[in-house]
Amino acid sequence: MSGPMHLEPHGTQDDTLMLRLAVPKLPAAPRHGADPVTLGLRLPGPGHHDAAVNELAAELADRVGPAVHPYEVAALLEADGLSADTIRRRYGHPDIFSLAAALYARVPRVFPEPAAAPDPWRPDHLRCLLRGVLFALPALAYLLTAPLWRPGGHAAALVAAGILSWAWGQALGHRAYAWMAVGRREAARALLRGAPLGAALATAAAAAASQGSPITWAAAAQSLYLAAAGVLLVLGRELLLLAALSPLVAGAAVLPWWEPGAPLRAGLTFLALAATLAAAGRTLRTEYATPAAPGEGAGPPLRRSLPYGLFGLAAALLVLLAGRREPYAVIVLTLSMGPAEWLLYRYRGLSAAALGASATPAAFLLRSAGVLALCLLAYTLPLLPAALLTGAGPATLPLLAATLWSALLLQAFGVAWPPALICLAAAATAGAVTLLGLPPGPAALPLCCAAAALCLIGCTLRLLGRPAPHA
Is the predicted pLDDT of residue 46 greater than 60, yes or no? Predict the structure, then answer.
């Protein structure tokens, strides 16, 4: 067959019954152009049924409008159970195809947009806010215990333990999240093995830096807390961690009006630490009791977590350099980690929407650049007045925040080595200039952060400005 078969009558004979008589042609000319050998009987057409057809068209307009061919309307009428007798008697059409064509001609074409799909990257507002608060609450322990110990020249022990804990926690968190794709029991096992080891290594670094000073005990408590808190945050137990830190909140809340004394200061701090350790242990036991995932393999290789640990090291060094001159700005930066996480989700959601609204790769790149600029401005602009209120310079805090957020954005898409190396280079350069007293002096940190932020933004546009990572 060379073409589709016609399923409905065509031509001018749709409503005319033609009877051709076998008679010879007469010599006389026909009157009014009529064929003398043809008797034409015209049956009543659908004209007097127009009102019924119009009424049916109005009733089915929402379903006939999106049709792209009358046959779709015919299928719709057949699905509605319209019989051939009803079509002839009520609507005056010989068959369903004729009625479908009439309806198709009467209803304008409309092509509604598909219903908007729910945003899979919609952030949990309360959870992001809570995580930002939880990142800053441990600082209350230093406020409570400050009169109890004199770090003196051994403050480097706490710094060394904190930097190592931060780097270890980033690498362990990545490994636990990678295991989470296999099963929660496997993630809990990774945390159970890695968290105590990280705390022990951080405490050993503090002991070496303090040369056996009693401050080692404070560093050990800090390392244990960071390890336990990391376990709770990775496993999504933010409310449990908040409850464990409630003694710190209560103790710090009464300090402006009442001196609790050394025993209560130390007791509230150790109570919060014990509650955090107990909550982490109970959570690990609960998760480890879940059934193991079938077909468990060797798991993600350790080298995949290395760049995340290096980024944690670089971020800790950058924050330390900022805190040497602007300690209160660091507290603001810590509190901003909650909104930063919220904006990471919003970037992914807005990028998915931009992908649906773009027709070409160039258009998507332009929209992607706009989304990135919007998120960066939404994160850094509120930090300007916060930096001024804390007495810090207007440049360091926003530039450091932009560097860390851009690096975290790339990591969220699985791009780990570029942000790690860029942040390490910035931290090493700023640290060397600060330690050696080289020019430009205090301006080295904001300049290094600005250069790192520009490099990270360029990487983001090159790697995430394509449709593939967002599909």
Answer: no
Measured CA to CA, the distance from residue 456 to residue 14 in angstroms comes to 71
pLDDT of residue 296: 60
**What count of Cα atoms within 13 Å lies in the side-chain half-sphere of residue 422?**
25
Q: Is the dihedral of CA 380, 381, 384, 390 positive or negative?
A: negative
d(CA 21, CA 37): 6
Specify which residues 42 forms β-bridges with: 16
Q: Per residue in 182-198, pLDDT tens?
A: 889 999 999 999 999 99
Query: Is pLDDT at 358 greater than 70 in this prediction?
Result: yes
pLDDT of residue 392: 79
Percent of the chain with pLDDT strictly greater than 90: 53
The pLDDT of residue 19 is: 38
The 3-class SS string of the chain reads CCCCCCCCCCCCCCCEEEEECCCCCCCCCCHHHCCCCEEEEECCCHHHHHHHHHHHHHHCHHHHCCCCCHHHHHHHHHHCCCCHHHHHHHHCCCCHHHHHHHHHHHCCCCCCCCCCCCCCCCCCHHHHHHHHHHHHCCHHHHHHHHHHCCCHHHHHHHHHHHHHHHHHHHHHHHHHHHHHCCCHHHHHHHHHHHHHHHHHHHHHHHHHHHCCCCHHHHHHHHHHHHHHHHHHHHCCCHHHHHHHCHHHHHHHHHCCCCCCCHHHHHHHHHHHHHHHHHHHHHHHHHHHCCCCCCCCCCCCCHHHHHHHHHHHHHHHHHHHHHHHHCHHHHHHHHHCHHHHHHHHHHHHHHHHHHHHHCCCHHHHHHHHHHHHHHHHHHHHCCHHHHHHHCCCCCCHHHHHHHHHHHHHHHHHCCCCHHHHHHHHHHHHHHHHHHHHCCCCHHHHHHHHHHHHHHHHHHHHHHHHCCCHHHC
Q: Which residue has the tokens 């980033």?
A: 170
Rounded Cα gap, residues 147 and 151, in angstroms: 10
| Alpha-carbon span 254 to 368, nearest angstrom | 48
Q: How high does pLDDT run on average in the chain?
A: 86
